Amino acid sequence: MTSKSTAPFNIAPELVILDTLPDNLRKRFKVALKLMHENLFDSLSWEMVAKKSAISPFHFHRQFSELFQETPGRYLSRVRLQHAVHLLLTEPQKRVTDIAHLCGYSSSQVLAKVLKRELGVSANELRPAGSNSTPLQTFKHLEKLAHPRHGDSFEKHLAKSMPAELVWYAKRGVKVIEVPDFDWDKAYSQFGDKSLQLLTLTPIGDIDRCWDEIAMMIADWNAPIQDQNESVAEGYYLCCEVFVLNDTGYVTAIESLFERARGLGFKVDTSKALVEMMLSPHCDEDGGASFSFQLPVQS
């Protein structure tokens, strides 16, 4: 069901930066990033991260700021907020106070101040965006949490070089399944490796509607023929495979695929659906996941 066998294109700024470092520095900063991402609820300060990474706070602050173009404190704050925004958008039943604590904030009031300062919204204003805003409106929030870079976000800079391939697909049979409030993280938690057999179909004609009005389908592309009850339309698809660490990288890749189609002179086929598939789960040492995106076009 995918178009390529090569490694997915990396839209994870941190990992791209790490790849430029000598082995000794790469290992230390990899430890630091792992601590920052996996221990948000511990409210670790960047000084504590430096100590646990065997780097003096002075050198850690200087080197981190030079490499990542933001201070370690600012980076840690941005990662916390990324995770909080993800939970606010995808976990409607979870209390704001619980989300705040999970992300390392001392209270919901502290989270509220950070949200207002960085995104200009409150938690109560942001939470419904997961259902009553459009994909573009959601992307505008996530874009503010992208990795900083001169002139543009680092994710957008990387996505400009993202390979895309025009592929013809015959009609593909699938079995539509019910997964309330679908999210790839939830899917992997619920189905494990079987989530790699899932795809989502988002009608291009619905893309400007609010999330609740989009007739997105979740389907099993590996279901036996006798169980298949829907199909992915045949035709040309502009395809890419990417590795991302967070929601910002995910939506940047999709937006860039649309831009690539326009740049190549393709017209997006509004009668068909955008196909999204997870290629590798959120369980590798880098904490990210790989996805395939297939955009229907008229050649």
UniProtKB/TrEMBL annotation:
One of its GO terms (molecular function) is DNA-binding transcription factor activity. The keyword Transcription regulation applies. Residues 30-129 form the HTH araC/xylS-type domain. InterPro entries: AraC_XylS_family_regulators (IPR050204), Homeodomain-like_sf (IPR009057), HTH_AraC (IPR018060). Keywords: DNA-binding, Transcription, Transcription regulation. PROSITE patterns: HTH_ARAC_FAMILY_2. Gene3D superfamilies: Homeodomain-like. It comes from the Bacteria. This is Transcriptional regulator AraC family. The lineage of its organism: Bacteria, Pseudomonadati, Pseudomonadota, Gammaproteobacteria, Vibrionales.
